[in-house]
Design goal:
The chain is mainly alpha-helical. It folds into 2 domains: 40 residues; 40 residues. It is 85% helix and 0% strand. The protein has 2 helices and no strands. The longest helix has 38 residues. 0% of the residues are buried.
């Protein structure tokens, strides 16, 4: 009877130890690893960012062309409300 009670107390202590010490360390380690993996850009993200950069560069050129055309057509267009 005494051995069974000692065994159940040992399992209880072991369970508490696992829940209080080992499980939180595992959870923190798991999410730190996931955070480090997600921190960088994937190849698809880098490709999309390069395409967006190129589109922005083209749009900037178009805006410059439009502003030059407006300056030639209506020289004071920028100062009009």
């Amino acid at each position: 009877m005494m051995a069974g009670m000692a065994m159940s107390i040992a399992f209880l202590v072991l369970g508490i130890l696992v829940v209080v010490v080992i499980l939180p360390i595992w959870v923190v380690g798991h999410y730190v690893t996931r955070w480090r993996a997600a921190r960088g850009l994937s190849a698809g993200d880098e490709r999309m960012l390069a395409e967006l950069w190129e589109s922005a560069r083209k749009l900037e050129g178009r805006i410059d062309s439009l502003e030059r055309a407006f300056d030639a057509e209506a020289p004071g267009w920028r100062s009009k409300p």
